[in-house]
Amino acid sequence: MRNAENLRRISALDIDYVGFIFYRGSSRCVSENEDAAEMIRRCERHKVGVFVNETAANMLARAETYRLNSLQLHGEESPGTCIALREAGYGVIKAFPVAQADDFVKTEDYAACTDFFLFDTRCAGYGGSGLRFDWSLLDSYQGRTPFLLSGGLTPGSIHDLLLLKHPQFAGIDLNSGFETSPAVKDVDKLKDFIHRIRNAVAVK
pTM for the whole thing? Predict the structure, then answer.
């Protein structure tokens, strides 16, 4: 999110987290100026800052400036970096690209220092492929850290999402499949999707 009015309308929906990307290589990167900082500080939802290969010091400085609640790491950050962020009082989400069952082995070193893993589709860059990986691979994840699912989620994903029964499946990351342009979310599309999936979960 980086548009104030779009953020205001999305924040009014029945959502849990709002994400702000601080990776300059992303088309969704927020502007690092006082207007953007004030927009993010005023958001009353749980705010997640998304970073790629930043130092703990740089992430903590931005977390304080923007009043973030959690930090989502999409690079090759070490467990030590995750520990430093948690000790500073922030939630930590560590992303892992997935293309084959062996990719889950990398999560083992992070099990004690993260709140959530995020499983996304492996691509050439750092996230944002808009493609879905083979969800049957999730059966190979035997860890105890809860995970969020990302990559290629669209309004048509509800049926398959409701079929996922993995004990550590904790939530979903909705992004490009619900945008009208980079960083601008389709409010009506998200509202309808959230209503349908929450009601379907409640019924089941």
Answer: 0.94
